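Retro notes
What went well: the complex prediction finally ran end to end.
Inputs used:
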Amino acid sequence: MNWTDERVEKLKRLWSEGLSASQIAAQLGGVSRNAVIGKVHRLNLPGRAKAGGSIATNRAAKRPAAAAPRPQTFAARPATRPVARPVGATALKEEAEFEISQELVYRPASNVVLPISRKLALTELTERTCKWPVGDPLTDEFHFCGCESPDNSPYCTYHAKLAYQPVNERRRPSAARG
DNA sequence: CCCTGATTCGC
DNA sequence: GCGAATCAGG
């Protein structure tokens, strides 16, 4: 993944908007935050005052990302009857949930930077956009990640890494030692 | 420890 | 020029 003019411009824009290097790396895809920082310096872009400097800046910059629809817990509650949920839900929906029920609930790994979903519809996807589905296909909220996907990957860097992990497969509590 | 950017240095 | 490794800080 090389620094095309396009990507450099995006880098400049996001950097000037105050996104952190790791955030920018997530948006660009295919590069590490170190790569972003290195490039920023080579471009002689204005730095961030002092290292870690104003975290306030970073926090503020992050907010939009948080506001964006987190690729929220995308999977599915077990067949155990849907808890209290807006019952606009149809029988069809319940059926769908039943079929995919694996007793798995996916959540983003804690140490992974979420890309900001571009919320593309199916018809808006191209070969270069992440095709990771977000949300419930039976609602209007449903969309695709749409972030730039590196290489020939169908997914952005984040989703390609399978950042989603089944909660119940994470870290056994004890495995006691001694 | 989590995160941040800064710097170094082999490639 | 690039970016992993490392450093220094919040």
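What we learned: Strands of chain A lie at 106-108, 133-134, 143-144, 164-166.
What to try next: split runs per interface for comparison.
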